[in-house]
Specification:
Chain lengths: ~375, ~140
């Protein structure tokens, strides 16, 4: 017999924390991670000994990083596990933490993402794949091809795609944890230097270092440990998937569409219920593609709507209020957990200058090389 | 504008390049590059996968000029091509001015960009169908 999250014990996020995302420095990963964990513990009111298991998301660090980091909090002997799922590593670690609490295996579990920039070891050569493009392929090249196709299919303009970066820079400027904190105008984004196809430098996310942490707990633990129920944000659905047969023309959007549909079905809700979304905008065009794949925008219409302000803070659906990968940054391991931190902060109405009014239901979405996709739906404390 | 190439082609005549693809006996799917150890559409094992020579002729699905790369000389042009025999493949293209829907096929060593290392020079690139390096269109 199988079950989805909402059939099992309720899972609530009780604490979130970050280390600011920043350019690579000499700081050891342990210092980055410990700061995010301490912030999450303080936010929850929990002590480290209450945490029963830890999942550590990283894509670029060496093996066996967990214990060397967590020992600075007191070596409690808890089970630890590294999670690697490319850009979706953090989201995947968070999902495992949620499943552990939902299933009743544990009452309090932490997901921590931490990474330092390093040249990624791509899997294709190791997999024995010999294609025509080899090392010339790259994420930005891939999404430049998707941008070229999007412009062609929908009659959109390069200026409309660039508006995603303008919006997310405005949001990132309000986020003290963001790697890019300057507001940027459309002309500035377009003139920031062409990287590939229509994509200019400010339409590509920075990959730096940082850390993010989220603690999830059962209702039993919330009662037993006297945690603040009014700030606990429920995780109502968790969905993950991987790419189907590679010959599908629009594999990226199909993967997000499939995963979103499972998420909506699991939650018993749909796109009309969503107030805010943190999604994988490593490159501007992705935000448009995924909003359409999530049925939050009609196909081909997201380019117009982003310029119209529909996805601004205070708009119909606030998208990437944190600044997204484009402005908050994309340190890889932490990114998906940083999204959870932003949605939790918004649903608690604690986001200050970047608070989206009436935030009640939020989505997180990460995709990664492979390709994989991991999504969560969270609801405000008042709803559940 | 397609770059004019010069010199003899190392790999035979233009338009003669075939791709060493693969077909699945069980479900009929056709692949490039080959999967070799099992069919991603139906899961049939390697014994059901057989070599299939594919013409490199097809249509441009999308293209983009990469202008900045950490380790590689730029610019170079990426292209996704839907082959006439079905698969969609990603490759390099000659020149920096393509069009979606344009007919293309693979040619050997057409690049004249001397910043490329010899290995990359030899890698096949998509050119407009009928393009003859050094000789314009046939």
């Amino acid at each position: 017999m199988t079950a989805v999250l909402r059939d099992l014990r309720p899972v609530r996020v009780v604490g979130v924390g970050l280390h600011p995302y920043q350019r690579a420095s000499q700081t050891p990963y342990t210092a980055l991670g410990v700061r995010a964990v301490r912030e999450a513990l303080a936010d929850s009111g929990l002590g480290w000994p209450a945490v029963q298991a830890a999942y550590t998301a990283t894509a670029l660090l060496p093996m066996a990083i967990s214990r060397l980091m967590y020992r600075h909090l007191g070596s409690t002997g808890l089970p630890v596990l590294q999670v690697e799922n490319a850009s979706a590593s953090g989201s995947s670690a968070f999902r495992q933490a949620c499943l552990d609490v939902a299933s009743g295996v544990y009452d309090v579990v932490i997901a921590v993402g931490v990474d330092k920039p390093a040249p990624p070891a791509m899997p294709f050569a190791a997999a024995g794949v010999v294609d025509l493009v080899g090392k010339f392929n790259s994420p930005v090249g891939h999404f430049a091809l998707l941008a070229n196709r999007y412009l062609h299919e929908h009659g959109a303009t390069a200026e409309q795609i660039a508006q995603v970066a303008v919006k997310n820079a405005a949001n990132g400027a309000l986020n003290p944890y963001a790697q890019r904190r300057k507001p940027r105008g459309l002309e500035e984004v377009l003139a920031s230097g062409r990287i590939a196809g229509a994509l200019t430098r400010l339409q590509c996310c920075p990959v730096g270092e940082g850390a993010a942490a989220a603690i999830v707990a059962s209702d039993d633990a919330i009662s037993r440990l006297s945690l603040d129920r009014t700030r606990a944000v429920r995780v109502v659905a968790s969905a993950a998937g991987s790419e189907r047969a590679h010959s599908v023309a629009d594999a990226d959007t199909v993967l997000t569409r499939d995963t979103t549909h499972r998420l909506y079905e699991e939650a018993g809700s749909g796109p009309a219920d969503i107030d805010l979304v943190e999604l994988h905008d490593a490159f501007t065009v992705e935000e448009l593609l995924y909003l359409e794949a999530m049925d939050i925008s009609e196909t081909g219409d997201a380019a117009r709507r982003v310029g119209h302000g529909d996805f601004n803070i205070g708009g119909q659906v606030a998208v990437n209020t944190s600044g997204g990968l484009l402005s908050m940054g994309h340190p890889i391991g932490p990114t998906g957990i940083g999204q959870v931190r932003e949605i939790v902060t918004q649903l608690r109405h604690e986001a200050g200058d970047r608070q989206h009014p009436n935030a009640r239901v939020g989505l997180t979405h990460m995709v990664g090389i492979g390709a994989v996709c991991v999504m969560h739906m969270l609801t405000a404390p008042s709803l559940s | 504008m397609a770059t004019q190439a010069s010199g003899e082609l190392p790999g035979g005549s233009v338009g003669g390049i075939t791709l060493h693809g693969e077909a699945c006996h069980a479900c009929g799917s056709v692949f490039f590059p080959p999967l070799r150890w099992g069919c991603e559409v139906c899961g049939a094992s390697e014994t059901d996968l057989v070599p299939r020579q594919l013409s490199s002729a097809g249509q441009v699905y999308a293209w983009a000029v990469v202008e900045v790369h950490d380790h590689l000389p730029t610019p170079y042009t990426l292209v996704d091509v839907v082959l006439d025999e079905g698969p969609r493949v990603r490759g390099l293209a000659e020149g920096t001015d393509l069009a979606i829907g344009q007919r293309v096929e693979l040619a050997h060593g057409a690049a004249t960009d001397t910043r490329q290392d010899p290995h990359d020079m030899a890698s096949p690139r998509f050119v407009p169908r009928g393009f003859v390096p050094g000789g314009g269109h046939r």
